[in-house]
Automatic annotation (TrEMBL):
This protein's record includes keyword Protease: no
CBS domain location: 7-65
Protein's name in the database: CBS domain-containing protein
The organism's place on the tree of life at top rank: Bacteria
Keywords: CBS domain
Family matches, as InterPro entries: CBS_dom, CBS_dom_sf, Diverse_CBS-Domain
Transmembrane segments: none
CDD domains given in the database record: CBS_pair_bac
Keyword Cell division part of the UniProt annotation: no
Length: 134
């Protein structure tokens, strides 16, 4: 089995660019009911993951930052506390499973680092549960 079997393609995944504001990122997390979301740059390359905690820590630790002015803060300036490592689309299943053990989702990239989708830990667990119990 190849990891592409578990791929949720980019066009079906919510993600943000690192040029949007903190407010826009918060709205994306809320809209999609996510606690973390992949970040890509202007070239489409995966650059990290933004979590709710990152937003809260930024709000707490930045003097003068309030909900009224978070629209002025670019995501690129927010320190990321969680780094979801990515996996190449042609990587071994074992590599992906190792990452999925510690991450709710594994970002998938091509050879140039371009974000092509994610693999959700939920989908992996459901697959193995079906195949173990059948």
């Amino acid at each position: 089995m190849e990891i592409s079997s578990f791929l949720l393609p980019k066009d079906q995944v919510a993600y943000i660019t690192n040029s949007i504001s903190m407010l826009e990122a918060l709205e994306q997390l809320e809209q999609h009911h996510y606690t973390a979301i992949p970040i890509i740059d202007n070239e489409g390359k995966y650059v990290g993951t933004l979590s709710e905690g990152d937003l809260l820590w930024k709000l707490k630790n930045t003097a003068g930052l309030t909900f009224d002015n978070i629209g002025e803060v670019p995501v690129s300036t927010i320190q990321k506390h969680v780094h979801n490592e990515s996996v190449l689309i042609h990587a071994e299943m074992e590599d992906m499973l190792t990452l999925a053990a510690d991450q709710n989702f594994v970002p998938v990239i091509d050879n140039e680092g371009v974000f092509i989708g994610i693999i959700r830990r939920k989908d992996i667990i459901e697959y193995y549960t079906r195949n173990i119990t059948d």
